[in-house]
């Protein structure tokens, strides 16, 4: 399910974003600048989704939701705080959209006539091959 722009804006307004020191290589920039983004979205207090949508999100994203019902994401792939913030928001929106899309049911199909005939022909060939391997009757 695609989220509308207004829903995305509401989600962004409900986010709690904090910048923390990033780890790993980067020299002086890593030591001075808080570029890693910690993004928190409280699913239980959100006014964007209905109760059924919240339940579905809770089930699908149970590994990402903590005991308080908060989705916590970290992003530190870029050197810039702004880029990390944009990527974290995009990652959250993508997670929510993916979790809200309903699973498509498989449509049952019957085997075609030609596939049935091929299967029977193959069985016949296999049986003749096995019969040829047997000892001849005397």
Automatic annotation (TrEMBL):
Residue ranges of every copy of the Prokaryotic-type class I peptide chain release factors domain listed in the record: 21-37
Write out the coiled-coil annotation as residue ranges.
none
Compositionally biased tracts (Basic residues): 116-138
User: What are the boundaries of the region Disordered?
Assistant: 107-138
- At the top level of its lineage, which domain of life is listed? Bacteria
Q: Which GO terms describe its biological process?
A: rescue of stalled ribosome
Which Gene Ontology MF annotations are present?
Answer: peptidyl-tRNA hydrolase activity; ribosome binding; translation release factor activity
Which Pfam family name is an example for this entry? RF-1
State the name under which the record lists this protein: Peptide chain release factor 1
Native species: Draconibacterium orientale
What are the leading ranks of the lineage? Bacteria, Pseudomonadati, Bacteroidota, Bacteroidia, Marinilabiliales
């Amino acid at each position: 399910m695609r989220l509308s722009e207004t829903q995305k804006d509401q989600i962004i307004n409900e986010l709690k974003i904090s910048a923390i020191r990033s780890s790993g290589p980067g020299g002086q920039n890593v030591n001075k600048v808080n570029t890693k983004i910690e993004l928190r979205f409280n699913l239980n207090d959100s006014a964007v989704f209905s109760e059924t949508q919240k339940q579905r999100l809770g089930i699908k994203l149970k590994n990402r939701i903590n005991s308080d019902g908060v989705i916590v994401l970290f992003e530190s792939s870029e050197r810039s705080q702004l880029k990390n913030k944009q990527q974290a928001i995009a990652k959250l929106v993508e997670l929510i959209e993916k979790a809200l899309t309903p699973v498509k049911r498989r449509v049952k199909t019957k085997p075609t006539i030609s596939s049935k005939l091929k299967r029977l022909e193959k069985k016949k060939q296999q049986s003749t091959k096995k019969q040829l391997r047997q000892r001849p009757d005397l």
